[in-house]
């Protein structure tokens, strides 16, 4: 999963099955973007989908996927923090 959006989607789905519109609302991404990423996740066996009346509901295919994504999320947060510190250090050395 090379996309932070897909990691966000898995993070949302960790709490249980969700409709595409609800995932879009929670993440703040357009519904079309969420649908595209869900297609990638579905093709990769990360999520499964089933129809519930008019809606398609997505859920995590295997609970172990949540643990993997938690680790990936931690790595991304650490990397963002490291990069932020590098930028701050550069700005301190090269003011204005």
Roughly what fraction of the amino acids lie in strands? 5-15%
Strand order of the largest sheet: 1-3-2
CATH H level: which superfamily?
Winged helix-like DNA-binding domain superfamily/Winged helix DNA-binding domain
Radius of gyration: 17 Å
How many separate helices?
A: 4
Q: Distance between termini?
A: 38 Å
**Mean pLDDT value:** 88
CATH topology type: Arc Repressor Mutant, subunit A
How is the main sheet built? 3 strands, antiparallel
Order of helices and strands: HEHHEEH
Note down, in words, how this protein is organized.
The protein is of the alpha+beta class. It has one domain: Orthogonal Bundle (Arc Repressor Mutant, subunit A), CATH 1.10.10. The chain is built from four helices and three strands, in the order αβααββα. The protein has a three-stranded antiparallel beta sheet with strand order 1-3-2. Helix 2 (20-27) crosses helix 3. The chain is elongated. The termini are far apart.
SSE blueprint and pairings:
Blueprint: H1 4-13, E1 18-19, H2 20-27, H3 31-43, E2 47-52, E3 55-60, H4 64-93
Antiparallel strand pairs: 1-3, 2-3
